[in-house]
């Protein structure tokens, strides 16, 4: 095992030496909280508070409808271009729209029509919304919806595969696919791959162009700190953009929405993946969340994520040996969260939250901690493990108040 021995003052010295330390001051992180849930809902950037006031009071309040021509209408492209910088894409290859689920549907249906092949392939243990959306898209396009285990994905791509849909970083274990290798293998077999980047964008360095990725979607409210229900994004490689047609032909994806033409003419490029009117308040919040990354690189963020992981796994092994880590130890094989299995994971997670350490539970028996280098300190990792040790040693998790299940876990 990878036990380590370290003191609190050594951990605090890591924080003092951390080049990303100043970024924490750009977030509202409540006192007494160690926040390990940025992979589910990023915290509030302070800039978002002043910016929302400006957008509501000055723009909506005073400019009224004039706001559309004063910058609102271009927000999906402008914010998309900022995401492009974080994921290694060209600015005009990303647009912000709808939710990840809806974007997946649009891409699946649009891309499936490029080929007459009959199978839509995904991983059995893919995130459930991906499975649900894919099964619905398959029904509509007359594709066979096929799921296989993670280990069998590579060998299951064959001459019947129309589309391969994969989530790059697994929401539970944090296992990460080799994006370039799988995309290449699928393309070699004549299939297109759609990547879900929900647990990747803002979390790990991505090189979509270099890796020759053609299609992807991702989420705005996790590592991008866009706020609850922030809009999602869609990426289409330049060479495919004008060959795809969104099944949701809304007026915002029309070549000339304000011509009010009788027939649909798709906008050139990525714009055709818009459907309805963009949510300006949410887009403004997402833009502030992404702007926190300005002046840093995903490589620097990732290096700190690795250091947080190494401290977490090593100190947990030392202090809480009964928590079994299920995330890959090799950095290049995982994303930016760490998960542990325990038969009483649910109660332990609730007891941790009660003690100010906020992670989350994933059925049936996993506690998950997001490692988000923009605002997490090494000391927070130390605190999380210490609280966990206290909870396990005293069995304080074993109280009925920690076993009550609510709607959202
Ligand atoms: C969070 C997440 C989603 C979220 O989809 P929404 O439509 O925003 O609810 C989708 N896929 C994966 C893999 C996720 O982790």
Summarize the structure.
This protein is an alpha/beta fold and 409 residues long. 36% of the residues lie in helices and 14% in strands. It has a 7-stranded mixed beta sheet, with helices on both faces.
Account of the protein in words:
The structure is a single chain. By secondary structure, the chain is of the alpha/beta class. 36% of the residues lie in helices and 14% in strands. It contains twelve helices and 15 strands. It has helices spanning 8-16, 46-63, 75-87, 100-112, 128-141, 153-156, 179-188, 238-241, 280-291, 298-319, 345-354, 378-394; strands spanning 27-28, 34-35, 44-45, 94-97, 119-123, 144-148, 161-167, 192-196, 215-218, 232-236, 324-325, 337-341, 357-358, 360-362, 366-370. It has a seven-stranded mixed beta sheet, with helices on both faces. A four-stranded antiparallel beta sheet has the order 11-12-15-14, with helices on one face. Strands 1-3 form a two-stranded antiparallel sheet. Helix 5 links the parallel strand 5 and strand 6. Helix 2 packs antiparallel against helix 9 (280-291), helix 3 packs parallel to helix 9 and helix 4 (100-112) packs parallel to helix 5. The longest helix has 22 residues, at 298-319. The chain is globular. The chain starts with 7 loop residues before the first helix and ends in a 15-residue tail after the last helix. Bound molecules: pyridoxal-5'-phosphate (PLP). The site of pyridoxal-5'-phosphate has 13 residues, from helix 4 and helix 5.
Determine the structural class based on helices, strands and strand pairing.
Answer: alpha/beta
Radius of gyration of CA atoms, rounded to a whole number: 22 Å
Total count of helical runs of at least 4 residues = 12
* Ligands, deduplicated: pyridoxal-5'-phosphate
* Mean pLDDT across every amino acid position: 97
Low-confidence stretches: none
Main beta-sheet strand count, sense and barrel state: 7 strands, mixed
N-to-C span:
30 Å
So what's the overall shape?
globular
- The counted number of beta strands is 15
Helical percentage: 25-40%
Strand order of the largest sheet: 4-10-9-8-7-5-6
Strand composition percent = 5-15%
Order of helices and strands: HEEEHHEHEHEHEHEEEHHHEEHEEEH
């Amino acid at each position: 095992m990878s036990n380590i021995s370290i003191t609190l003052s050594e951990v605090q010295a890591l924080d003092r030496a951390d080049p990303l330390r100043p970024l924490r001051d750009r977030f509202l992180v409540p006192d007494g909280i160690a926040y390990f849930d940025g992979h589910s809902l990023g915290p509030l950037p302070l800039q978002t508070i002043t910016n929302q006031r400006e957008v509501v009071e000055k723009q909506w309040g005073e400019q009224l409808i004039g706001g559309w021509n004063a910058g609102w209408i271009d927000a999906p492209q402008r914010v998309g271009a900022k995401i492009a910088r974080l994921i290694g894409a060209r600015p005009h290859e990303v647009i912000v729209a709808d939710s990840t689920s809806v974007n997946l549907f649009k891409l699946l249906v649009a891309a499936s029509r490029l080929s007459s092949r009959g199978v839509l392939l995904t991983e059995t243990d893919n995130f459930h919304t991906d499975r649900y959306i894919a099964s619905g898209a398959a029904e509509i396009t007359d594709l066979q919806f096929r799921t296989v285990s993670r280990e069998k994905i590579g060998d299951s791509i064959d001459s019947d595969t129309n589309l391969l849909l994969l989530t790059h970083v697994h929401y539970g274990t944090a296992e990460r696919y080799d994006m370039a290798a799988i995309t290449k293998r699928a393309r070699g077999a004549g299939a297109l791959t759609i990547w879900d980047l929900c647990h990747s964008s803002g979390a790990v360095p991505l090189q979509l162009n270099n890796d020759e990725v053609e299609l992807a979607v991702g989420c705005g409210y996790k590592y991008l700190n866009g706020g609850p229900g922030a809009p999602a994004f869609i990426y289409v490689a330049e060479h495919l953009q004008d060959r795809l047609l969104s099944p949701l032909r809304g007026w915002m994806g029309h070549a000339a929405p304000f011509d009010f033409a009788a027939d649909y003419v798709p906008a050139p490029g990525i714009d055709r993946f818009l459907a309805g009117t963009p949510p300006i308040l949410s887009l403004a919040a997402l833009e502030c969340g992404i702007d926190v990354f300005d002046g840093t690189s995903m490589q620097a963020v990732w290096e700190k994520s690795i250091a947080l992981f190494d401290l977490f796994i090593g100190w947990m092994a030392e202090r809480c040996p009964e928590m079994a880590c299920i995330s890959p130890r090799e950095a290049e094989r995982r994303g930016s969260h760490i998960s542990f299995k325990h038969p009483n994971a649910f109660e332990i997670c609730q007891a941790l939250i009660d003690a100010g350490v906020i992670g989350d539970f994933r059925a049936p028996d996993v506690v998950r901690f997001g490692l988000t280098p923009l605002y997490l300190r090494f000391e927070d990792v130390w605190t999380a493990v210490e609280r966990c040790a206290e909870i396990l040693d005293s069995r304080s998790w074993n109280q009925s108040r920690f076993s009550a299940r609510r709607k959202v876990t």
